[in-house]
Amino acid sequence: MISHIKTKSGLQSLSFESKYVLTLPTGACKDSMAFMREAAVKAGCSSRNIEIVEEAKAVLQFCLHNKQEERIDDRSSSKFVVVECEGHPYSLYETDTTRFWVHYGLVILGAVLALVTAVAQWRDPAPYGKHERKDQNWGPLIPQRLGHFLSDALPGVVLFVLVFVFYGTQNKNYINYIFLAMFLSHYVHRGIIHPLIMRYRSPRVAIGITLGGFFPNCLYHFVNADFIGSAEYHSNYYYDPRFIVGVILFCAGYVINRLSDLKLRSLRDTKDSINEQYQRTRSYDAMSNHTENKTENPGCTGYYIPYGGFFELVTCPNYFGELVEWIGWSLATWSFAGLVWTLFCAATFVPRARHNHAW
C-alpha cells in the first residue's frame, strides 16, 4: 500500500502499511520530530511502526534495507516521500520480546493440541451424550447447566473480556471493539443464554467432561483476546476484503447455528405423541453447541434429528454453522490465533459429526 508523507507542513495523507517513513530536513529540532510522530499516531499509525529519518539519502537507505520502493520529489522545499510496501493489516508485538514469545508459543501449543484432538476424536468420539460409556468414570456429577456455564461462559466471556481490557495494549481502535463484540455475541449466547433455554436430556454431567472443555477454551480464548486486544489495525481496515468477507461468513454461520439450536429446542417443547414425533423426525443424532441434539418425549428417550431446514443438508448444522463462524473470524482478524482456534473447532466438530452420522 502507499503512504504519502509531507514534511514541514506535517502529515499530508496516510494509508496503512507495515512501516511508516517520516522525513525531516537535516538538523531538524527534536520538537519537529515529536510533532511529526504525534501527527502520525493521531492519523492511525502504530507508534511502533514509525521511522523518522533525515534527508533523501537516509530514506533511500531505509527503503532499500526493507526491500521497498520509494521516490522523492521536491515541492516547495518540502520532501515528499511515497513509500510502497506490503505487510499485515496490523502491528502486534516486536520480535524477541517476552509478550511475542508468550503469544506465539501459546499459538504453537494450540496448533499441536488441535492436531492431537483431531487424531483422538477421529478414532473414538468424546464420551458424552449418546457416546457416553457407562464403564468410564469422569468424576463427580454437577448440574448440566452449571457445567455448560463453566466450560463456555467463564473462558469465552469473563476471561476474554479481562484479557482484552487489562492484558491488551491501550492503542485500541473501533476495529478491536468490533472483534470483541463479534466474539461476545457468540459466547454470551452459548455460555449463558443457551444453557438457560435448552432442555437437557440428562440434568447432570461429569465434572471431567466440563474440565475437558474448560482448559482448551482457556488456552484458545486467551490468545485470541490477547491478539485483538493488542493488535493495532490500520484505520481503513474495514475496507479490506479480508475483513468484509470474514464478517459476512461469521454472521452467516451465526444465523445457521442459532436457527439450528432453535430447531432442536422446538423438538423438546413438543407435546405430541410418540408416533407423531417419529413422523416429523429422523432416527439420526445431532448436537446443539457442545451438547447432544436430543429429544425427550413422554415415554420416549431416543435421539432424533429434526426434519427440515439445514438438517436436510448436513448431519449437524449447528456444528457446521459454528465452524463457518470461526472460519470468518480467522479471516477477518487475519491472525494465527484465530486460525488455530478454527482448526481446533474443526478437529472437534468434524469427527463428532462423522460419529453421529454413523450412529
TrEMBL record:
Signal sequence, start to end: none
Assigned keywords, A-Z: Membrane, Transmembrane, Transmembrane helix
Subcellular location: Membrane
Gene Ontology cellular component annotations, sorted alphabetically: membrane
Domain 3-oxo-5-alpha-steroid 4-dehydrogenase C-terminal span(s) in chain numbering: 215-272, 289-359
One annotated GO molecular function: oxidoreductase activity, acting on the CH-CH group of donors
Membrane topology, from the record: Multi-pass membrane protein
Domain of life: Eukaryota
PROSITE patterns xref list: S5A_REDUCTASE
Listed GO biological process terms: lipid metabolic process
InterPro entries in the cross-refs: 3-oxo-5_a-steroid_4-DH_C (IPR001104), SRD5A/TECR (IPR039357)
Family membership noted in the UniProt record: Belongs to the steroid 5-alpha reductase family.
Listed name of the protein: Putative steroid reductase DET2
Organism: Magallana gigas
